[in-house]
Amino acid sequence: MIDNKEFKSIKSILFVCMGNICRSPSAEAVFRQKAKALSLTLDSAGTVGSHVREKPDHRAQKAGVARGYSFDNIKARKVTVKDFERFDLILAMDERNVKDLMKIAPAQHTDKVQLFLDYADNFEDQEVPDPYYGGARGFQYVLDLVEDASDGLIKRITS
Q: How close are the terminal C-alpha atoms of the chain, in Å?
């Protein structure tokens, strides 16, 4: 787990879900907008590669764009071992993602893997639910969660 002193040194963040077409690209788009004043490298990826090079789910984009977020230049990709060296913080959307990331994480980088919602201040949820098989309301809820977690993380980085 990253301690308070280390938050100041964060320069790169990777958001991770399973397929990298709903939750993690939404988190990337939200965080990119909210943290635009900070000089950070941001990306998203999936633990599986079944959607590689695809744009985010149209429902995720519709919900995000309606709130002012851009999904430009976001395309699905699979997490690689190099990501653990490249990124200072790797934020998983759920516990399954954490387990999958830990299977490939080099031992010296396992402390970089955390649940994104550990930074949420206004929700008690610990995981961002996968909205893929649900309706539009699920995509709105994902945005509510990632907006809150983004605000909480930015507060920690900048304080």
A: 18
